[in-house]
Write a structure and sequence with these properties.
The protein is mostly beta strands. It folds into 3 domains: 270 residues, Distorted Sandwich (Beta-galactosidase, Chain A, domain 5), CATH 2.70.98.10; 159 residues, Alpha-Beta Barrel (TIM Barrel), CATH 3.20.20.70; 198 residues, Alpha-Beta Barrel (TIM Barrel). Helices cover 14% and strands 36% of the residues. Strands 1, 8, 9, 10, 11, 14, 15, 17, 18, 22 and 23 form an 11-stranded antiparallel β-sheet that branches. Strands 29-28-27-26-25-24-30 form a 7-stranded parallel β-sheet. α4 runs parallel beside α5.
């Protein structure tokens, strides 16, 4: 991975040079462009911070600190020292929504000591970027605090107004697989982050965290019906939130402050607050598109377990390999290949083997067959939440995968609790997921993690963590009791869950019939299915439907052509919950791709192509809804047409209810 530094300075600087000011009563640090100001103050002994942007208050004075088990709260302090630094660098992603990432911030480190008692030490580090802020706690090594237990993090975000938000509730046992809903701040439940807020002036705030390492995931709730949001850490089964030992650091608490949706989606604060890649040579890390024996299970055509309709058989996988090879797909996922699926595998996850295949699945034969065809087999490790069993086999499982040329593995944790008692987003879960990612990196294996902890930018440090679920994906459109995800769902995701990191949503369905659950169906048109490959980002994308449903379907050409690795991303237009227009430039050519989607309402949009190279010509291959398309009554028609365009062109897009438009802009 390339790392290009354009200006690096981590020496302690004169405060004014890094826009950091120190006074007895308060200390401030400003963003490089001077628009955002973080103020730290000690008020009646309590540590607080506030945030402003361009003279307007974004966060009112908000509390900081901790409650520790068996110890006095760490909440009454005096400032011992304030220091400042700055960094301006550009680093390159192994894969992503853009190649170059600028990491430019001013930092203020406040060193605190308790005023009474044992006078324990706590540092708070603030970083101000042009598009937001981050801050975290540091517990230095010290005589009076060694092993300790965090019972509560006192961090608050005092929002000055009762803005509308988009969120999902925490602690519902659904792995974040819940429909986002709009609510005012004071009416929120305890919710997961990212939490996105919209101001009356059309600006956006998103609260999340970065570099979640050996800690509990952060949730938020409004204090007594106010607009102040309080941190709520996911607990262990013991009630303890975090077990720690000095020296120790918390994750970064992040706040994106965006003037529009394009700036919101293109904020890289979360990535920049993670450590640089620990994988020196990333040449083996490759984005990919794949097919899979997966959708057929959800439709009950195939089964994961052994029996007359077992899906992952040698014969079936060969047929999928043939399909992938013919249609320029990189791999084939085979779920249900291994011992452990028979019976109640959610309750008996400890019976899974990750090195023993079912008798009708010949791994040796299939690996050789796939290699000849130029296709990779994608491994699958469902654990049923039995992490102890999985960790006991981890080294052997990844060694087995490498033996058979498997470079991608999809992991799963379908159980409300890990090992029947710990939450996925607890410190226990965070530790487990990290161990899997680090072990996979040793074997040069890329991970697609389902039922994860919410992503926090770890893909910068371990770019083999390619994509994760943590979202109500398209599988719900096969069997959910509410009939499927409504058309507005995917118009919300890019600005909520999508801000946390890549999503494995598994779109690409072309046949919406469902004989097993006829009341449930995919709630889009085919054209919208195509557009989702551009709107929703993941470096691993699945063509999710059965291969036979793609045959003789000209629209499948878009799925064959669309990349999964990008040089640049622009949100051209949108409104959360209504519609989105996204364009992305292919990393490996001069071609651009456009995806436009709408909710249940038909929509006419004008999109200028000013992002194209000036003076250059392009051929636009357009995949759009027909005049009579409708997600409920007529989802299948796709009109395919071509026209010559340039940077001066303005396209008129007509989206059907629940529909979309997908466009290939091919440079001449």
């Amino acid at each position: 991975m390339k790392h290009i530094v354009i200006n690096f300075n981590l020496m302690l600087l004169v405060c004014l040079l890094c826009a950091c000011n120190s006074k007895p009563e308060e200390n401030t640090v400003s963003s490089p462009d001077g628009k955002i100001v973080i103020t730290f103050l000690v008020k009646e002994g309590k540590a607080c911070y506030s945030v402003g942007k361009e003279g307007e208050t974004v966060i009112n004075p908000s509390r900081l600190g901790f409650a520790l088990n068996g110890e006095p709260d760490m909440a009454v302090f005096e400032v011992k020292k304030v220091s400042c630094s700055t960094l301006d660098e550009v680093w390159q992603q192994a894969w992503g929504e853009e190649i170059d990432v600028r990491n430019h911030y001013n930092e203020m480190k406040v060193e605190l000591q308790e005023k009474v008692g044992e006078k324990r030490l706590l540092n708070i580090v603030f970083r101000a970027f042009d598009d937001g802020i981050g801050f975290r706690y540091e517990f230095p090594e010290q005589a009076h605090l060694k092993d300790f237990e965090i019972m509560d993090e006192l961090t608050e975000f005092a929002i000055p107004q009762n803005y509308p938000t988009w969120s999902i509730p925490a602690y519902k046992g659904e792995y974040y697989e819940i429909l986002y809903r709009q609510s005012s701040i004071n009416q929120l439940d305890t919710v997961c982050t990212p939490l996105t807020l919209e101001t009356p002036g059309g600006k956006y705030l998103t609260l999340h965290e970065a570099n979640l390492t050996d800690y509990a995931a952060m949730n938020l709730y409004p204090v007594s019906g106010t607009t102040t949001l309080k941190t709520d850490l996911t607990p262990w089964s013991t009630g303890v939130k975090v077990y720690a030992q000095t020296p120790f650091v918390s994750p970064w608490r992040t706040l994106i402050l965006a003037d529009d949706l394009n700036q919101l989606v293109n904020s890289r604060i979360m990535l920049n607050l993670n450590e640089p890649s620990k994988i020196e040579d990333t040449s083996w890390i490759r984005p990919a598109k794949y097919a899979g024996i997966w959708w057929g299970m959800h439709l009950k055509k195939y089964s994961w377990e052994q029996g007359p309709i077992h899906g992952a058989t040698t014969k079936n996988v060969k047929a999928y390999i043939d399909f992938a090879a013919t249609h320029h797909l990189n791999g084939v996922l085979a779920e249900g290949w291994n011992e452990g699926w028979d019976g109640d595998w959610v309750a008996n996850g400890h019976l899974f083997s990750f090195t023993e295949a079912y008798p009708d699945f010949d791994m040796d034969e299939l690996s050789k067959y796939a290699a000849v065809k130029g296709v990779e087999i994608i491994g699958h490790h469902e654990t049923g939440g039995a992490t102890i069993n999985y960790e006991s086999q981890l080294e052997a499982a990844f060694a087995y995968d490498k033996k058979y040329g498997i470079n991608y593995v999809k992991t799963g944790y379908v159980n409300n609790f890990l090992d029947k008692k710990e939450r996925h987003s607890s410190q226990y879960g965070v530790r487990h997921y990290r161990k899997v990612i680090e072990t996979a990196a040793k074997y040069h294996i890329m991970i697609d993690n389902h039922e994860p902890v919410m992503p926090t930018g770890l893909q910068r440090t371990y770019p083999n963590l390619m994509t994760q679920e943590g979202v109500r994906g398209q599988e719900y459109d096969a069997w959910s009791k509410d009939g499927g995800s409504p058309p507005e769902h995917t118009t919300i995701l890019p600005f909520t869950r999508g801000l946390a990191g890549p999503m494995d949503f598994t779109f690409g369905t072309f046949d919406f019939t469902n004989s097993v659950n006829p009341q449930t169906r995919v709630q889009t048109t085919i054209a919208k299915q195509l557009a989702l490959y551009v709107v929703i980002y993941s470096p691993l994308q699945m063509a999710s439907d059965l291969p036979e449903n793609y045959l003789n379907k000209p629209a499948f050409a878009f799925i064959e052509a669309v990349p999964v690795d990008w040089e640049k991303t622009i949100v051209k237009d949108g409104k959360i919950g209504d519609f989105v227009v996204t364009v992305r430039k292919d990393k490996h050519s001069n071609n651009w791709f456009l995806g436009a989607i709408t909710d249940e309402n038909a929509r006419n949009l004008q999109v200028d192509l000013s992002f194209l190279d000036k003076g250059a010509g392009y051929t636009a291959k357009i995949f759009r809804d027909a005049a009579d398309s409708h997600w409920q009554t007529n989802p299948y028609p796709v009109v395919i047409e071509e026209k010559e365009v340039s940077a001066d062109t303005v396209l008129d897009l007509s989206l059907a209810p629940g529909g979309g438009t997908a466009i290939i802009l091919e440079a001449k």
